[in-house]
């Protein structure tokens, strides 16, 4: 046989034998390591080692022994093939670097998953920090690989990157912005996982479920998802409802509009009628006695209702609304309860109701709000007041019919 052919045949046989041996050792080692890890995790109380298995840490560690075997035997197998030996050693060095990166990434992912199970870290943007560290590990790994391929030291290669720093900053602009934003969000406690936020610019209105390096994931109230760039949390304005969720009650702030021409002074007949309303009967009696005493002491001419002090149907209704809110079981009595006038508008006089419901859940909150305003809207007519409402087609038609009938 040709000596050259015999040499390459011997090389092929040796390499084939080495590959088969490594595959067998790799299989047995990984099985042993994985089974050992599973047995160990079943005996421990911590969940950290459980997450190690889920992130393939035993699988990566199990490849260390086959690599050691290859590194120890290859020089003998390829002793007469220096070029091939150099290529194989180069590949082994690169694979070792990649394997180290995989092991570190597995540890970081395990740390992230473990911390997210701890109560004190559940609302923190752990994903962002871990992603930045993983990126940093990969960058260092790539630098080592390039250094191995070029034959230069890592320090020399890092120094040469200084000239390309502007390009790197441009490439990693979003990553850098996201990282800085994550730190500011965490340090300033702007947003936590579990917060309900409203971000009109991106159509987000729901609960924050994830904060990572590039995006914030929000589950909207209709169970759709919206993703928001992380740096937008510090560059744009949004609404965080955490303060409401942590407070004892949720604010109800709405107005009903009273027609201005329905507001008038009350007569003795009105007082007698309003006195039958139990919520304000004591107030009316006490208030009217004060007014009568004042008018009597000052010899006020009451032939005109405008003279002296008088009560109005709107003022009495305002007091009724206040008493109704103070009696309502769903309203928090230790927080503000205000019924106030606002400046008159073209739609009438806004009578604003400001109070806080005990139940902060959205569905129950809306029910409580509707229940309050159902009652107040229905009660308006008992005080001879009218609500403003833009005329509808039926109103215009009725007006035209009445005008034509009059003619």
Automatic annotation (TrEMBL):
Domain Mechanosensitive ion channel MscS: 174-242
GO MF: mechanosensitive monoatomic ion channel activity
Protein's UniProt keywords contain S-adenosyl-L-methionine: no
Cross-referenced Gene3D superfamilies: 2.30.30.60
Protein localization: Membrane
Pfam families, alphabetized: MS_channel_2nd
Keywords: Membrane, Transmembrane, Transmembrane helix
Primary localization: membrane
Transmembrane parts of this sequence: 6-28, 60-78, 90-108, 129-147, 153-172
Domain of life where this protein originates: Bacteria
Lineage: Bacteria, Pseudomonadati, Bacteroidota, Flavobacteriia, Flavobacteriales
GO BP: cellular response to osmotic stress
The protein's name: Mechanosensitive ion channel
Entry GO terms, CC: plasma membrane
